[in-house]
From TrEMBL:
Residues 10-316 form the Enoyl reductase (ER) domain. SUPFAM superfamilies: GroES-like (SSF50129), NAD(P)-binding Rossmann-fold domains (SSF51735). The keyword Oxidoreductase does not apply. InterPro entries: ADH-like_C, ADH-like_N, ER, GroES-like_sf, Lipid_raft_assoc_Zn_ADH, NAD(P)-bd_dom_sf. This is Zn-dependent oxidoreductase, NADPH:quinone reductase. PANTHER family: PROTEIN AST1-RELATED. Keywords: Plasmid. It holds the Pfam family ADH_N. It comes from Azotobacter chroococcum NCIMB 8003.
Length: 318
């Protein structure tokens, strides 16, 4: 089969487009013919050596959608999608013609989504779902989502499905207008000092949940919290350090929730996909748009695009 593989880390030039043996599934596993696979920033960081537990040589790629061609009878021929912490790190991932994984690591693909659309959602949507679950977002919760990247947009859409009162915030004006075009009220991110008053104008008493998807607004988010509010974070500055206004945080009974998608295996992610996937078919979650499809053979160039900060979601097609 054709696949992308790296045998050393530190430079994207280590990624090769190769002919490799097609994996053979064991009992309790499935072999999925990959129809589309998402390219995430974490896939790029993996090749660059940011994950010390990755074993080599390795096929990268966490997110996929495809068709089961070997495995349990109840899954044969079914269109599925999946993601998880194993893929691309200590098991071969989905940037290949086929991927092998445990049978409980796949979920049935929503019928309303194309293979490319489904493959674009794994990491962003399971990350956002986990943040909302663990922050206690439900009907009526006042939620501020900072950042308009893939995870931020997923969080806004999923929070709205949950019946929350949703507010976005973005630094770039075109991002703010894009959120407004999708029906979200969105604040312009100006200065950290301005954020609490901006939030108060929309949410009297502050936001009950703030999800900072950027890694740079934790300190500013605390004064914008309601009593007993929660701040969820998925990123941090390059040095991993931030000044936390601890006095303000504990006086308002606030808490910080760390979100890490690499804590969840394929089976746990498949359960998440099942839970929110139905909302694409019932029309309450919008299908993703603006995807960039690229042949798997051009994978190295697409990895370089993502490394350089390309904002469009790239989908690799075997």
């Amino acid at each position: 089969m054709k696949a992308l593989q790296f045998s050393q880390t530190g430079d994207l030039s280590a990624l090769r487009y190769l002919d490799l043996p097609t994996p053979v599934p064991a009992a309790g596993e499935v072999l999925v013919e990959v129809r589309a696979s998402g390219l995430n920033p974490s896939d790029v960081k993996n090749v660059l050596g940011r994950f010390p537990y990755t074993t080599l040589p390795r096929i990268p790629g966490r997110d996929f959608a495809g068709v089961v061609v070997q495995g349990p009878q109840n899954l044969l021929g079914k269109a599925v999608w999946g993601t998880g912490k194993e893929l691309g790190f200590y098991n071969d991932g989905a940037h290949a013609a086929y991927v092998k994984l445990p049978a409980d690591g796949v979920a049935l693909k929503p019928a309303s989504l194309s293979f490319s659309q489904a493959a674009s959602l794994g990491v962003p949507y399971t990350t956002a779902w986990d943040a909302l679950e663990r922050s206690g977002v439900g009907r009526g919760t006042r939620v501020l989502v900072i950042g308009a990247g893939a995870v931020g947009r997923a969080a806004l859409a999923l929070a709205r499905v949950r019946g929350a009162h949703v507010l976005g915030a973005a630094r770039r004006e075109e991002q703010r207008r894009a959120l407004q075009a999708k029906g979200f009220e969105a604040l312009p991110l100006t200065t950290p000092e301005a954020l609490p008053s901006q939030v108060e104008q929309v949410f009297e008493g502050g936001a009950q949940v703030i999800f900072d998807t950027t890694g740079f607004w934790l300190a500013a988010a605390v004064p914008a919290l309601a009593t007993f509010g929660r701040v969820a974070i998925i990123a941090a500055p390059a040095d991993g350090q931030v000044q936390l206004p601890a006095l303000d945080l504990y006086r308002r009974g606030g808490s910080v929730v760390g979100i890490n998608s690499l804590l969840y295996g394929g089976a746990e992610c498949a359960q998440m996909l099942e839970r929110f996937g139905r909302h694409f078919d019932d029309g309450t979650l919008p299908a993703p748009e603006g995807l960039i499809e690229s042949p798997l053979a051009e994978g190295l160039a697409r990895y370089a695009d993502v490394d350089e900060g390309r904002s469009e979601k790239v989908i690799l097609i075997p």
